[in-house]
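Hi support team,

I submitted a single chain yesterday and got back a structure, but I'm not sure I'm reading the token output correctly. Could someone confirm the output below corresponds to the sequence I sent? I've pasted both exactly as they appear in my results page.

Thanks,
R.
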Amino acid sequence: MTTGTVDTTQELAAFLRSRRERLDPGDFGLLSHRRSRRTPGLRREEVAELAGVSIDYVVRLEQARGLRPSAEVVEALARALRLAPDERAYLFGLAGRRPGAPDKPADTAAEPLARLVDDLSPRPAMLLNHRYDILAWNPEMAKLLLDFGTLPPARRNAMWLCLLHPEIRERYADRERVLREGVAHLRAAWAAHPDDPALTELIAEFAAGDEDFARLWAERDVQVNGRGRKVLRHPGVGVLAVEFEVLVPLQDADQRLLIYRAADEESQSTLDRLFAG
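Hi R., thanks for writing in. Yes, this is the structure output for that exact sequence:
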């Protein structure tokens, strides 16, 4: 066991070797290979072929010979070695590269997170992805904003509701600030997920359908806002203020847990009346 500063070149080499050696050739249809296998896992030439790089490149990486692979090569190696998400992030870190977005953005709620949303009652809570698609919500959030189950799945999007839904767009007392923060978040998500066609189409729809969005998008503000305060005008109970917190689960990094709580005693009383009704 060693301590002190990590030699990332050596650790990258050791990590690649360990991940290669743990793979089962049978999973790749390689058991009938003519040459006998004297070492576990895949051969270097097999990893090179799967990743689309030269054998010499894999050899030099595993021998810690000072290479600094590009983000594209790191991604190709991660796929060839069938790395889990946390292993993929570790490999990108060792290579000194920023990991790209996961292969498939979340379109459905992870079951444990959906249960957590329910367990958070009576605090209003919902689960979103990076596009602001609403994946799960509890009854309190439905009472506070809208029963999202009454909407077509394509319209269960928090930004679309704020922009274009006739009731929700008037729900925010400070709509300009809320919208500005939302657009800045969406631009950050767009940069982090350049290959997500659904997000690109959503942004194009917003820009064409709402002048406020088009104006704010053109300002190119970028911000990821994880907590804050909103003042809501509820048609049934009146004005109330809520604080919000956004949490990102380690296991499902494309999903975001949004939790509201009353910002003051008067707002708590208002929420109590709403949820009791």
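A quick pointer for reading it: The radius of gyration is 24 Å. Let us know if anything else looks off.

Best,
Support desk
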